[in-house]
Amino acid sequence: MKITEVNTYFVRPRWGFVEILTDDGYTGWGEAVLEGHTATVLQCVQEMKEYLLGQQAGDIERIWTTLYRAGFYRGGGVLMSAIAGIDQALWDIKGKYFSAPVYELLGGAQRDKMRVYSWIGGDRPSDVGQAALEKKNAGFTAVKMNATEELQYIDTYEKIDAVLNRVGAIRDTCGKYFGIAVDFHGRVHKPMAKILAKKLEEFDLMFIEEPVLCENMEDFKEIAASCDIPIATGERLYTRWDFKRLFCAGGVDIIQPDLSHAGGITEVKKIGAMAEAYDVALAPHCPLGPIALASCLNVDAVCHNAVIQEQSMGIHYNVGKSVLDYVKNKEDFQFKDGFVELPKLPGLGVEVDKALVLEENKNPHSWKNPVWHHADGSIAEW
Fold this sequence. Notes:
- This protein is of the alpha/beta class.
- It folds into 2 domains: 101 residues, Enolase-like, domain 1; 242 residues, TIM Barrel (Alpha-Beta Barrel), CATH 3.20.20.
- Helix content is 36%, strand content 16%.
- Strands 4, 5, 6, 7, 8, 9, 10, 11, 12 and 13 form a 10-stranded mixed beta sheet that branches. Strands 1-2-3 form a 3-stranded antiparallel beta sheet. Strands 14-15 form a two-stranded antiparallel sheet.
């Protein structure tokens, strides 16, 4: 089962796919992308080909360690996202070789299905009460929304009140026990994060996400002390060594490693186990495509501390194409009563529509996130 070919593809709305082929006819798919830097990540995959061609596809730990350690420079979003896509594809091949879902090769499932939530509200959230009610009526038991627009280090209480009004609208329309997560998205700095977190207590939130960026992870303890809401973060961390520092800093209740950024299945399984040892929950980040989602579900299946899964069907980023457009076995990704069943097919569980992938790749996307400014013209966090 030697690797003979490594291909990369751009697919809308903002994703990158990796295809690995073997000499005995197996094909594995991965999703290698860092939103806004897809071209860079896919080029990095191509640079790694010389470490892959001719290797046994089943030697996943050996290949992962080679890609991580042998290049001297390591870590960071681009390198780890490239490794993640390759890793997913190798697990896909291995599962197909053994005619089993990947989670069976990771020790077997600890659960039968996985709770999921849906995004509402867009970049500049509005009308979220009605949007949340629509998701509730569609069977979801939880939603997530961006908290706010731009916020300066010190900003107005008018903006704080606008956040509270939006969250209050969801609680009013969906009831006391409907799950609400509020994503600060790294747009909020510590002085305002403490205020906003404290004022959001009244709504009994499921969690607040990225109240500050992980580059300021020493602040999480202070923010946690200012409110009684679980704190989630981790989408911008890429290795178990990054998460080691986060666990040591303390203050975080839920980690959100991304299966397409943090080294793939091999690495996130280890990160999840580390979190369990700190009594911290796992809720993988996934505003991405079907291969990333399937990878998440395989890890969720085997991690005792996995609590809820992000997914991007209906998210505001998905313009032109969406998750299930690339999936032939769409029936395996249906949500019911706020849950999704575990993958059923061998490998990751996604039958990729390669014809559509090839068509999309003819006109590579170049998605970039917006650049925001404060009223004084200075750059704002997006």
